[in-house]
Design brief:
mainly alpha, 164 residues
Length: 164
């Protein structure tokens, strides 16, 4: 369940993967497909470790991921989001229940807004000397994912462990 070492291990692996995603997005403006696939493939193991039932738990997770991918595909087609960002969001949606996903998206938007303001200010101040930076939105996605792990998943695990 929540205090299971497997769950902690999976959350630690997810946190490491998110740090790698943020780093590679900053460094090369790419989030590798293998990394997104690893995050997505970790979700079913997480479901089993958490004791999710096929109906409705897993089907809800799959439905959320499909919805996130559909919306992300529209944003990608409009050139508002990169393909790696869409795939990372979809993979993360597999890990989060509906309310957690909403909190994640709000936090991602807040972090992304601050990041955009910071990079926009840097671009305005250094426009004569330097090439403008693009916003690596994988950083905001990863930071929000780490926030979810740190504030939602881990405290719930600690509460469950203390209750026993």
């Amino acid at each position: 369940m929540l205090d299971d070492p497997i769950t902690y291990g999976l959350l630690a692996a997810l946190a490491i993967a998110l740090l790698v995603a943020a780093y590679t997005d900053i460094k090369s403006r790419r989030i590798a497909n293998w990394l997104n696939l690893a995050i997505a493939l970790g979700a079913p193991v997480f479901w089993i470790a958490r004791g999710y039932a096929f109906w409705p738990d897993i089907t809800i997770q799959l439905g959320l991921a499909i919805g996130v991918f559909a919306l992300g595909s529209v944003l990608f087609a409009l050139k508002q989001m990169g393909g790696g960002d869409v795939k990372l969001l979809t993979a993360l949606a597999l890990w989060m229940q509906p309310l957690v996903l909403v909190k994640f998206i709000v936090m991602m938007a807040l972090i992304g807004g601050v990041l955009t303001l910071f990079i926009g200010a840097r671009n305005v101040m250094g426009r004569r000397k330097k090439k403008p930076w693009a916003v690596p939105y994988g950083v905001a996605i990863s930071a929000a994912g780490l926030w979810v792990i740190g504030t939602i998943f881990l405290p719930a695990s600690a509460i469950a462990a203390a209750a026993q």
